[in-house]
Amino acid sequence: MSRVSSPPGSRKRRAGRGAFTHSGPFLDLLMVGAGPLTTLPLLMFAAGVRNIPLSLVGMLQYINPTMQITIGVMLYDEPFTRVQFVGFGLVWSALVLFGMEGYATRRWPQMGVTDVS
After folding, report:
1. What's phi and psi for 35, nearest 5 deg?
2. Alpha carbon distances (Å) from 30 to 13, 17, 19, 33, 41
3. CA dihedral sign, ordered 46, 51, 52, 54
4. Which of 10, 20, 23, 68 could cysteine-pair with 27, CB 3.0–4.6 Å?
5. First CA to last CA distance, the chain
């Protein structure tokens, strides 16, 4: 069985040769099975999104990158500069403001603008 990955420059590069049908039957089956396996969570997400407001979906999609950057900085000692921190803070400040506006609109609908004409 061939190696799945190797450090750059450790073996001769073969231009124009793909991995499929050149890596052995086990890896070929893994590659074929990866497509349908990847679609399952996406289909489940699409089914779940139909039951909640799209504004909530948009807010929830900020959680994964936040967890990724937190893990990267805290566990893997990734650099996180002041400029990145300011940008991160501005994005989350805007999300908090957006969430507060949505809450206020639902809580006190009579104060919201309903007629634009």
Report:
1. -65, -60
2. 23, 18, 12, 5, 17
3. positive
4. 23
5. 70
CA distances from 86 to 17, 55, 90, 92 (A): 44, 24, 6, 10
Inter-residue contact 60 to 96 (CB < 8 Å): no
Token look-up 């991160």 returns 88
pLDDT in tens, 45-100: 899 899 998 888 888 888 888 999 999 999 999 999 999 999 999 999 998 998 88
Amino acid 50 reads R
